Amino acid sequence: MKKPKLLLHICCAPCSTHVLTLLSETYDTTGYFFNPNIHPRSEYQLRIRTTERHFVERGIPLITPEYQPREWFSRIKGTEGEREGGARCAICFRMRLEETARAAAALQFDLFGTTLSISPHKDARLINQIGKEAGISFRILFYEADFKKAGGYSESCRMSKSLGLYRQNYCGCIFSKKAREIQR
Ligand code: SF4
Questions:
Q1: Do residues 100 and 70 touch, judged by C-beta distance below 8 A?
Q2: For ligand 1, atom 4, which residue shows the shortest CA distance?
Q3: Domain spans of the chain, in order of start
Q4: What is the pTM of this model?
């Protein structure tokens, strides 16, 4: 039987490991690496190359749209000083999920989703709410999930370690990078 076509927003290779295993059984999955939040460009390149390698190894297609850091900075203007998990993150999730929903509808996928909820630092309820709203705007079904549950996060750590994947030590934007540097 033909599997439904899922366009999956990928935040980074380590977060995709376990999620791909879970979803690929049921869905004909394609990755979508849209992360204009990642700063600096060299870090973006490192994360995208790691993701590309991982997808090639697993034989799963990956779409890599253009990097749009200027648009991201313009969208989050006024929330630069927010802590991680605050208003800036909601805008950041929305930008990435709306673009994935737009692409999924344009490319005639049956539904779309995201790996974002696997992180213990990310609020799955907020991600799912924004995903559903993006789905309504672009008339496409959103796959609701909290992938960190049932040991999902630990499994993604185990898999990425055993595969030797690069794992970053900050979420992605310059503000999360600075916050991490202060903590050290
Ligand atoms: S901390 Fe992470 S989710 Fe929040 S704005 Fe920065 S990159 Fe986006």
A1: no
A2: 89
A3: 5-183
A4: 0.97
Tell me which H or E stretch contains 32: strand 28-32
CATH 3.40.50.620, domain 5-183, yes or no: yes
pLDDT of 22 above 80: yes
pLDDT at 51 over 80: yes
Q: In the prediction, which pLDDT does 183 show? A: 81
Q: Give the contacts of 134 (CB within 8 A, at least 6 positions apart).
A: 94, 97, 98, 100, 101, 142
What are the tens digits of pLDDT across the range 79-90? 999 999 999 999
d(Cα 53, Cα 102) in Å, to the nearest integer?
25
Q: Does the pLDDT of residue 6 top 90, yes or no?
A: yes
Q: Residues near ligand 1 with C-beta < 6 Å?
A: 37, 84, 88-89, 92, 171-173, 175-176
